[in-house]
Amino acid sequence: MKRPNLFDFATKELSQDAFLAWLLQWAAPENAQYDPEMQKAGEGFVKMLLGKEGDAGFRVEKIAVYQQREHVDIWAEINDAYVLIIEDKVGANEHSGQLERYRELAAKQCGSERKLRCVYLKTGSVPQNALRQVEEKGYAVVNRKKLLDFLGKHVVENVIYADFADRLRRIEESEDSWRTLPIGKWFKESWIGFYQWLEEMMYVESWGDVSNPSGGFVGLWWHFLKWRGCNVYWQIEQGNLCLKLGEVYENQGAIRDEWMGIVFRHAQESGHAEIERPRRRPGTYMTTAIVPRQAWLGADEELIDTEAVVERLKKYEAFLDECLK
Fold it and tell me: pLDDT tens digits, residue range 6-46?
């Protein structure tokens, strides 16, 4: 039985806020008398968040750390020279223009004497386009990989510190499991890790949770094209690869039949016998063709062949292009 980990129980954002604020406060120079290694790690954390990792001359002379100041998750004032605000997220994403509001509010309180640094710290996994949108709002992104890199370089004999690092490391390992597990044994986190890798290999519109009466799945969608004013695109449904059509509000059955006629005529002409007809009924968003998971990704007992998978997905992109000609 493994040693109990505090953060297996303290999984909420408020618990993570507390850890981050605690680590920041360790940067105060007077804390070196209690634990010089923790003080050094805290100062390193401040430098990483301020983007000063390479500045050997930077030192934390004083720091004040606040939680939920002006509704900002973590607010720190450093050396009378910097105001650091952190929006801390575990699973949820930013919403309702909160990042812009926090940045404007903090900027007003900085005055002309202090520099503002805005950080979006996200330990859960999100699509790259969501993080790009955050960066466009003036925030530096610190994701789980960057945080783990910092924790790995600053190893401290402190059980709280070690528990936090261990918890993040296990999440990372679970999402990396797609590389070593047989495809038939992939679980939700395996698919999330696979989707993040695909984002690096090809242009992906987005990915995320999709709800349905069967319990939902983690989906990925890409290669959006237009046909008769509707989107046609590919969607991976944590297994099957589906050709989607939507949004359709009128004459759904007739439009679906016309599009499927084009798709399956081209499938027959191009030798794509693996493409199957769906059983679902017409709707606003419709599945119009299915490529079984075994046909595009691999059999249950196989390990993924990454080069072959990317090559197949690009062929299905080309197939959709040809359908529109």
Answer: 999 999 999 999 999 999 999 999 999 999 999 999 999 99
When pLDDT is averaged across residues 161-190 and rounded to a whole number, the result is 97
DSSP string of 180-217? Answer: TS-GGG--HHHHHHHHHHHHHHS---EEEEE--TT--E
Q: What number of residues does the chain have?
A: 325
- Listing from the earlier edge strand, what are the strands of the sheet with 206-210? 206-210, 217-227, 230-237, 241-246, 285-291
What residue ranges in 123-254 does DSSP mark as E strands?
140-143, 206-210, 217-227, 230-237, 241-246
Q: How confident is the model at residue 99 (pLDDT cuts 50, 70, 90)?
A: very high
Q: Got the DSSP string for 9-62?
A: H--SHHHHHHHHHHHHHTTSGGGGGT-HHHHHHHHHHHHHHHT-TT-TT-----
pLDDT of the residue at 113: 86
Is the Cα dihedral 95, 101, 107, 109 positive or negative? negative
53 close to 64: Cβ distance less than 8 angstroms: no
Average pLDDT on 246-272 reads 94
pTM of the shown model: 0.92
Q: Strand, helix or coil at 283?
A: coil
pLDDT at 95: 67
Summary mean pLDDT of the chain: 95
C-alpha closest to that of 320 among 232, 202, 206, 230:
232
pLDDT for the residue numbered 282: 78
Q: CB under 8 Å to 302, separation ≥6 — which residues?
A: 182, 183
Label residue 253 exposed, middle or buried (CB < 10 Å: 0-12, 13-18, 19+): exposed
Do 186 and 178 touch, CB atoms closer than 8 A? Answer: yes
Parallel/antiparallel/unpaired status of strands 230-237 and 217-227: antiparallel
